[in-house]
Amino acid sequence: MLGCDIGSMFKVTVAGGSYQEGLITHLQGVPPGLYFTEQEIYEELLLRKPGQGELTSPRREPDIPVIYAGVNAADTIPGFKNAFHTNGTPVVILLPNLDRHFEHIEQYQSTNRTPRPGHASFASYMKYDHWDDAIGAGIFSGRYTSTIVAAGFVAKHILAQHGIQVTSFVREAAGIVMPDMPLDVIRQKAAAYRKVRRDYDPIWNFVYGEKRITPGMRYLEKMPVLAEVEKRIGSFATIPMDEAKIRAELGIHPSLFCPDLAAADAMYEKILAIKKAGDSSGGVVEVVATGLPAGMGEPVFRKLDGELGRLMSIGSVKAVEIGAGLKVKDMTGSQSNDQIFADKNHHVYFGSNQAGGITGGLTTGQDIVLRLAVKPTPTISKDQHTIDKVTKENAELKAVTRRDPTLVARIWPVAEAFTAIILLDHYMMHLGYQAMWRK
């Protein structure tokens, strides 16, 4: 299968499927000397994983990551303190599938002849014929986005050391749009949301809170812990959540990361109303990146805005706009242009940011701002017209598989991660190019 890799200096390759043994993310270009833990990666994966309430699929996949390669197993020389740090070789992160029970497989088998409208199931069958990994949609399932989030965690970890930060959130869902909010406030609420997801996750408490998996454990020592989690899936006691306290003290919705609480409440209610009617809804995810130098990117075929257009590789994303995006068609040049000024200290600044921080495919030094249009979940609780993909005869589809009423609530961490992967790759190229001639 081609198409499962991205990048030049920071190269990400993914593999696996929804109901295979698991998924893998393979990272080349990770600098040596970095320290991060499986617990930290898990806390990022918590933001997109299913089984966390009415806005997600009931699949209870825990997404426990295993760092399999790329870090030192111990201090390499007496006196060195480099155990468990990256060593410059490819970093490999495993994401075993633990919630793939046979009754779920049977559900897919019973409906796989009738592809879901709006889903890749017909096109993938035409490409791979009867060898197609159609159990849980294989690599075309949203499950594969866990590999992007794991890779994006590493990318964000590296970018942060250079003062670059990437933030994403739900801007719109089910037709409800949040009002503008200062970025520093959004980032405070993002940190609070991450903490809430962690503190009320029973698997985090079982695996990391009770120290069943700790840095330095061998792979075969971790596997019995994952086997125990697999046995207990569906029986972990929920941690009671004081939603009123979370709302009052943190000003966030506990299940949907739209940083404006009133908008988040309205989104939540509208999503559930559409779900109750047997349908699904879409929305808009916004991503903002700060701290990037001016002049980063490449011309012509590798323009940075074109590279960020690769975010359409995220399943269910149907459009990516940067800056003013589609609104530029209704602007005049004087409205669209970001006029340039210099202060008394000769520091350059702009009067606006309609370009979203990119002109000519290169960064301007302003914030990069982009938005992703997310379509409604293809799987719905309504009868749909389809075909028998083997006989090519007309058929009716009755959805029986587990589903998300909306995908926008889970795509924002994927968008954040994917953006970080692209930006890190270009930042590394930028530093290398600048080092060749700047003295």
Gyration radius, in Å: 22 Å
**CATH architecture term:** 4-Layer Sandwich
What is the general shape? Answer: globular
The description of the largest β-sheet is:
5 strands, antiparallel
The named CATH superfamily:
Chorismate synthase AroC
CATH class category: Alpha Beta
Topology as a string of helices (H) and strands (E)? EEEHEEHHHEEHHHHHEHEHEEEEEEEH
Strand content: 15-25%
The CATH topology corresponds to Chorismate synthase, AroC fold
Q: Mean pLDDT score, rounded? A: 91
Distance between the termini: 44 Å
Number of strands: 16
Low-confidence segments, given as residue ranges, are: none
Structural class: alpha+beta
Number of helices: 12
Strand order of the largest sheet: 1-2-3-5-4
For the record, the count of structural domains works out to 1
Residue share in helices? Answer: 25-40%
What's the structural blueprint in terms of helices and strands?
Blueprint: E1 5-6, E2 11-16, E3 22-28, H1 38-45, E4 66-69, E5 91-96, H2 102-111, H3 121-128, H4 145-160, E6 165-173, E7 176-177, H5 183-199, H6 202-209, H7 219-232, H8 243-250, H9 261-276, E8 283-290, H10 304-308, E9 317-322, H11 333-336, E10 340-342, E11 348-350, E12 358-359, E13 362-363, E14 368-374, E15 384-388, E16 393-397, H12 408-437
Antiparallel strand pairs: 1-2, 2-3, 3-5, 4-5, 6-7, 6-8, 8-14, 9-14, 10-11, 12-13, 15-16
Helix pairs in contact: 1-4, 4-12
